[in-house]
Amino acid sequence: MTDQVPEKPLIVLKQQEKDARRQLILNAARHLFAEKDFRSVTVREIAKAAGVSIGTIYNYYENLTELFLDVFLKSAEDILARIDNEQASPHASLSRLCSLYIDFLNENMAFYQMMGHFMLGGELSSEGTEKLNRMMRALMDRLEAAVVASGTEKDSRLICHALFSALNGIMITYARYPGREATEISRHTRRLAAIIGDLFEKRVR
Amino acid sequence: MTDQVPEKPLIVLKQQEKDARRQLILNAARHLFAEKDFRSVTVREIAKAAGVSIGTIYNYYENLTELFLDVFLKSAEDILARIDNEQASPHASLSRLCSLYIDFLNENMAFYQMMGHFMLGGELSSEGTEKLNRMMRALMDRLEAAVVASGTEKDSRLICHALFSALNGIMITYARYPGREATEISRHTRRLAAIIGDLFEKRVR
Amino acid sequence: MTDQVPEKPLIVLKQQEKDARRQLILNAARHLFAEKDFRSVTVREIAKAAGVSIGTIYNYYENLTELFLDVFLKSAEDILARIDNEQASPHASLSRLCSLYIDFLNENMAFYQMMGHFMLGGELSSEGTEKLNRMMRALMDRLEAAVVASGTEKDSRLICHALFSALNGIMITYARYPGREATEISRHTRRLAAIIGDLFEKRVR
Amino acid sequence: MTDQVPEKPLIVLKQQEKDARRQLILNAARHLFAEKDFRSVTVREIAKAAGVSIGTIYNYYENLTELFLDVFLKSAEDILARIDNEQASPHASLSRLCSLYIDFLNENMAFYQMMGHFMLGGELSSEGTEKLNRMMRALMDRLEAAVVASGTEKDSRLICHALFSALNGIMITYARYPGREATEISRHTRRLAAIIGDLFEKRVR
DNA sequence: TATGAATGAGGATTCATTCAT
DNA sequence: CATGAATGAATCCTCATTCAT
After folding, report:
1. Whose CA, among B48, B124, C67, D125, lies 20 to 30 Å from A191?
2. Does the CB of C59 sit below 7 A from strand F?
3. What pTM, to 2 d.p., does this model score?
4. How many C-beta atoms lie closer than 10 Å to residue D152's C-beta?
């Protein structure tokens, strides 16, 4: 026998290929979004960056919005994973969680840009809205758990919303403060996150 | 007596007329911005809404961005005035200030959309940037005063930044939570603002 | 008698004022045309440069084209005067005339730009066309006289046309040769004019 | 035999199709330029004349200027080929070359309009400027060769410049002499070209 | 399924000209 | 007469999306 390697069925290979290409597009888009305002990124640019044709992008995504959403969801998965990892640590604390999240935002400007975009009325299919809501709920669940763990007993969901809002607000307000360097901004936003974190932690006492 | 009414010179009248028309354009833009994402508002729409021609818009503003900025600045003046008014009240408190600001944002969605836009890198003439910065500083001065008045002694500017961020974050995060009514959103954001306000007030103890 | 100074009638003064203002506009336009392609000069620019309002310009000229034509005609008068002056000199020669004309063109780029513009189909009122033709004939008469003076007996008008063409061609071809300095261009065009002049002078022998 | 016709690969066919469409646009533009001042030709007109959409124009050309340049270069190739053909003839002479060139200009008014436009400062990418210069040099080389062949030994490049200028000047000066018929103009310009040609030929003696 | 050329509505902006004051 | 704000048609160009190959 010439071939003893157990072959994966063709259909599986194809699926893998497909996933790979989808991943390719996704990553290309993420990188572009990291470079400039995601609303100014064009399909052509993404196609070029991903090394595929424009048409291919439309084979994987209904339209640009769906691709944007997917990028957003992937980023959300990242932060979810980071949070889960952090929460597993013995030093887990609300403060650390805040730092973690603000660091994530600093690295993923497109994330909160998109969050803002979708929240502020970016058109979305009902299916897309569903996905978005599911993801936000998942994120909120993590945060709420941390809030509860920090001692809050009453209104934990509401307080979790307040915390989440506060952290997001740091970025929208200071992410690109005109005339400041990236490192300076990072320092400032982290300092603000620390203040917020402290407030929500001390709250329980 | 032939004419004792003190006549305004013609030049003054003309200036008034000009100001009035500028106001007309400004208000038309504000209303449109309230209806949808301000970035999707076109010159044609503004002109139509203001009842003037496209060319007239450009007689009053160098370009669309400058008009956007002016709308932003006018809104900022509004909130500044409201704050000043509130601070003059005997019941002034940080909490009330938070409510006030969040109410303002609820009524002026375009304000924080624009704030986000300009902060996140929206192109602006150096003159425009200067105006923007001046206004932000003025706003921050008010907030800081309130923060100090609430008992904070150390790092008042930084804490004021944190508070400002937190309040803005509420809107960016929940202003148009998909599937919620405006009144519901208003209630939710006010509740969150109250939590934030409480936190920053209790901070002093 | 309180006033013995012989007064010019009011109507004369007014006419002088009017002429002065017309001159003002004309000169402003000429200077602007010297700075850049005359087709890119706007009414607003001319008005500003002349220190009058846009409307005033339209009081003196039917439209922009008529102003352009007037500038052209004024320039043509200049070169005519220069030629007349030169021809009165004892050293007058066809060669010197060529130099004179090319120098004039170097100083008045707008002149041949406009000549080209009007010749190549720039719309003109029939009255304007008439003025233009009259001026071209006057210029041609001078040139022809010089051609005849240089010894040419046959086909003097035709040869004069050829000479005129050749000189104009120098400018259209080399006036802004990319990457060359103004002085360099001036030297080159003068050298070419000398060659042309020589050819037409030697012709007679 | 199933298929012995050597099939062109698909990619070649596609390229041909692309070239054909580019040609389509090019020709449409050339015809429009022949009808009126090329600066007044709009993208819409070209698109309509070519039977393609506006967007398609921009698939083939960065911007209008690049299209203008391409039209110019294609015309230049034409005259270059005609010159090469003429020079290969046993009856080649400077006079005939002059006639040839003036005939070409009469048929391609846009050519010298564009030459004038680009020479007089029409914006061009550095790549475009490079192409333009290369083409002008090629043309000048041909002319210089003819000038040399006619007996000129000294300053051949300079004299070639003078000749080229003179010929171009004929067109700029008389191409559309107001109130003259096309045939009349053609006759006049040819006569002038003959005079110029004679002068430059006789020069050698 | 991948391709990428074609599409064309829609964007911001310009500017000669008018006309009420 | 002088003014200059108002006008709006017309400009070039962009870009998400489609669809024939």
Report:
1. B124
2. yes
3. 0.87
4. 20
